[in-house]
Write a structure and sequence with these properties.
Elements lengths: L2 H9 L6 E4 L5 H10 L3 E4 L4 E2 L6 H12 L4 E4 L2 H14 L2 H9 L2 E4 L2 H9 L13 H11 L5 E6 L7 H7 L3 E6 L3 E2 L5 H11 L5 E4 L2 H13 L3 H10 L2 E4 L2 H8 L5 E2 L6 H16 L1 E4 L2 E5 L3 E4 L2 E4 L2 H11 L6 E2 H7 L8 H14 L5 E4 L3 E4 L13
Parallel strand pairs: 1-2, 1-9, 4-5, 4-6, 6-7, 9-10, 10-11
Antiparallel strand pairs: 3-8, 12-13, 13-14, 14-15, 16-18, 17-18
Helix pairs in contact: 4-5, 4-6, 10-12, 14-15, 14-16
């Protein structure tokens, strides 16, 4: 079967799939990468970032470090480090902060952070090629941190075990809260995203920070919908996280998460491009290759948008391809259909029209409908 690769080449590997984006920062970049590959994107920031210039906690910590310089400063993100320097300039203490940083052991988590450090006119003492906080921790503990004062640039996400290990080693740790998170001021978009997940209107949900994952879970709990959300994320909606730290709040709730090998937006999108089409499956029906996706069906490599009622019918039929599905069962699958079996006939007519190939679905008089599975093909092709 070559239908799926053809569809990917012509219309993008994510054509027909709906992907939720919870990011506040770089959301436009992630949405553009997904859209370029054919996905429909539903964006709702799960968080908002406290503007650095207004962050009194960061200002207080900056003044504290200037007054009593630490032995070591760990810079963890480029955007955070740049923002810290710029905010300090705005507060009138930029020069004093740079003078302080020139006199300490400055460690940069990776190449991007190293670039931000050097752009500020500073020189890092060391930077791991792996961009791993674990490697930074190993170096600090190997050097010995007992009695030392270590400032760690925080960036909105927990650093599991990092601060604790330094304190256990005898260090005094000062957290530098470069950009902090708060819940969004307008909850309506987040609620719409949550509702879409509950009704399986999303094929995948992406997270780029642990606080965003926690925020969505908290909102579901506030609305009394947490069990339903967890059921959707465990069974039907693929959960993709940019890195293992981001995944922790979800994994703690028993949600299986997918993470790319490289913790970047590009690899995250590539992961979705591989996983979502693989989930769809291809059905050989009446001599055609049919792939059932989120809100579309790919017939012989051509995506065909299908209305929600039609997708509900098609997914029900696809659970037992080639078997007759009674009208009563199909009626139960239709959202808000009531008890009138005529609704099934109406939705079926529209479904066949949307597919463009009526012979894909057979009517079995007085019994129901079935997918026209090619002879000699077993039910392992069932998708949806």
């Amino acid at each position: 079967m070559t239908a799926a690769p053809q569809a990917a080449a012509t219309h993008g590997p994510l054509a027909g799939f709906t992907v939720g984006v919870t990011a506040a920062r770089r959301a436009d970049e992630l949405a553009a990468l997904l859209t370029r590959r054919g996905a429909t994107v539903l964006h709702a920031p799960a968080l908002r970032i406290v503007p650095l210039a207004d962050d009194s906690e960061l200002l207080a910590t900056t003044r504290q470090l200037i007054a009593g310089p630490p032995d070591t400063v760990v810079a963890t993100t480029a955007i955070g480090f740049r923002g810290w320097i710029e905010a300090a300039d705005g507060w009138g203490v930029g020069g004093a902060l740079l003078d302080t940083l020139k006199g300490v052991e400055l460690l940069a988590r990776g190449p991007k952070v190293k670039g931000a450090v050097r752009a500020a006119g500073l020189t890092e003492r060391w930077s791991p090629a792996s961009e791993s906080m674990a490697e930074v921790l190993d170096r600090l503990l190997a050097e010995g941190v007992a009695g030392r004062r270590v400032a760690v640039q925080l960036h909105g996400e927990p650093l599991p075990g990092f601060v604790e290990a330094l304190r256990e080693g005898g260090a005094e740790v000062v957290g530098v809260p470069v950009y902090r998170w708060l819940p969004p001021q307008d909850m309506a978009p987040l609620d719409r995203l949550l509702d879409a997940a509950l009704v399986r209107g999303l094929d995948a949900l992406t997270f780029t920070s642990a606080p965003a994952a926690t925020s969505l879970l908290n909102r579901a709990e506030e609305r009394g919908l947490l069990p339903e959300l967890l059921a959707a994320l465990r069974d039907d909606v693929l959960v993709a996280c940019v890195g293992p730290v981001t995944a922790l709040p979800l994994q703690a709730r028993g949600v299986t998460t997918y993470t790319p090998e490289r913790f970047r937006l590009g690899p995250l999108v590539q992961l979705l491009c591989a996983e979502l089409p693989a989930r769809a499956g291809v059905l050989p029906l009446a001599g055609h290759a049919v792939e059932i996706r989120g809100h579309a069906v790919v017939v012989d490599g051509e995506p065909r948008p299908v209305p929600p009622a039609g997708m509900a019918l098609l997914r029900t039929l696809a659970r037992r391809p080639g078997w007759v599905v009674p009208r009563a069962e199909l009626l139960r699958a239709l959202p808000g259909s009531g008890t009138d079996e005529h609704a099934v006939e109406t939705a079926m007519t529209r479904l066949r029209t949307a597919l463009g190939t009526p012979r894909l679905i057979q009517t079995v008089v007085k019994r129901g409908y079935r997918l026209a599975l090619d002879p000699g093909v077993d039910a392992k092709y069932g998708g949806g």
